[in-house]
Amino acid sequence: MKKFLTVISILIFIVTAMAAFRDIPKGHWAKNYVERLEQIGIVTGFPDGTYRGDEAVTRYQIALFISRTLDYVEQSLSSLKTQLNENKGNIENLENTIQDMKLTLELHDQDIIKLYDLVTQLGDKFVYTDEEGNQQEVNVVELKNDIASISDILNGLAAQLGDVDYLLRKQISDLDKKTSAKDDELSNLTAELSQKVSDLSEQIETLQAKIEDLNDTVVNIYNTLSEAIMGLQESLATLEASLTEKTDEIETRILNIENTLETGLPVLRDAIYGLSEDLANAQEALKTYTDVIAENLQNQIDEHAQANDEEFAKVYEAISNLQDMLARAILGQQEEIANLSTKLDKLNELVVNFSSETNEKISVLDERLGLLENQVASLSQVVEEVKADKSDVEEINKELAKKATKEELEQAKTIATWGVVTGVSGLLIGIIALGKILGWF
């Protein structure tokens, strides 16, 4: 039996060692979790011995993992239930055994009481009547020996019963401890399994939500692609129709061109042949005509050349003289142009300076004009005052002419004269200031 268990443990170790996935790197944070899931049968990997942890999980794989997880949970719960049932059966058997032992002890107690009663009776009577009615004598010595042996037997039975009672009580306490430990373990496992089931339920709900979102996304993409494909099909049908029309039109044009070429090519060939013959004849006639004209012109040139050699010499001499005069005139013109350019530069400088000075003077004149406007305003006020004084003087003169005496008239005239002199002097002062500003003085 030990050898069989050893072989089984070795085989399990080899299988678990060989079951490790070869594509999970050493030291990866999820390696232990994957191995744990592989040991309990939830994850099996691919046929090539790989886990492919970086690939996406399909809905089929999720359903397989959830089904295996639920099977594992149900199997664990069933095994725990089996163990609990076995423990309950063992406890019931122990309780029955204890009850039987209690009954046995109670029976032995009654037998001991009966034996003690018999001993007391035998101690009182040494003769007894048997079943046949005969009186028998009792050997007290033998009876005592029998009683002593019976007492030893009873003492041994009592000791054995005490040991059995102790062992039974110890086994009961041990079973109670084991049962409580198993109950605690079972409660912990139940809580852990319920937590795992709740976690798996949450994960399943999350995965279902993601799957629904993916389904919605796939449906939207499918609808969009369907609409795009329908639009492309319509565009393709339109293009095919237009291409068919254009192809028919092009084929019609090609047929017309072919018909035209078939009917017109012979005519064109005949016309080209006729034109080529006419062109050859014209070329020959033109060549003959040009040869005659060239010969006549050459003769005339030769005749005039001899007569005009002296005139050509005179013309060449006059041309050379004209060229010299033109050269001298060009040089003079260049010098004049240079002088004019220098003068123009000077004029530009003068214009620039004059414009700058003019701008400065204009700014000064603007300032002076502002001052003059102010002074004119003041002079206008003075003139108005003088006019007012003059009107006052006239009124005074009128009144004096009516009422005043000659002395009063002279005094009034003197005052009026001083007023007029004051107004005229103010006017002269304003004119002098204006002349200084304008540069008149």
Automatic annotation (TrEMBL):
Q: Does the keyword Heme apply?
A: no
Q: Which residues form the SLH domain?
A: 17-80
Keywords for this entry? Coiled coil, Membrane, Transmembrane, Transmembrane helix
Q: Which Pfam families match?
A: SLH
Q: Does the keyword Transmembrane apply?
A: yes
Residues in coiled coil: 77-111, 190-249, 294-403
Membrane-spanning regions, if any? 415-438
Q: What PANTHER family has UniProt attached to this entry? A: OUTER MEMBRANE PROTEIN ALPHA, OUTER MEMBRANE PROTEIN ALPHA-RELATED
Please identify the protein, giving its name as recorded. Answer: S-layer domain protein
> Source species, please?
Fervidobacterium nodosum (strain ATCC 35602 / DSM 5306 / Rt17-B1)
